[in-house]
Amino acid sequence: MHRSLRAAMPIVLAAIALVACVTGTEEPNVGGTPVGRPGSYTFSGSGVQASLTMIGTAGQLEIENQGATDLGAPGVAAVDAAGNRVNASVANAAPVSAGSSALFQISFPAGFRPGNYPTLRLDFGGQDFGTLQRTA
Question: What's the pTM value of the predicted model, to 2 decimals?
Fold first, then answer.
């Protein structure tokens, strides 16, 4: 009995090691902008420069409105492959005046599963501006 246990031990240890290698705390990413792990994201277009730093399901959004018109209050949404959206809460969301910059804290709702939503979208006043691109 002890010999068969010793013979099986390397197989058991290899299986444990394999599980340890493929099991992690981060949600799987299926492409697009990976959400839910530390990282930086940017958007540039229409006179707007935006940068987002995410850690888990929370982040900091910095907006520079270099355009000639005011922007509505910012919003960030995670979007899955089927187009389903989960909107982040933007603390103290407010319009961003032309020629000014602003800093906002964002967070996704409790229970949000970031790996299911590979894309981050930026909007102002409910108008979609585009995808935030991962930079780091």
Answer: 0.71
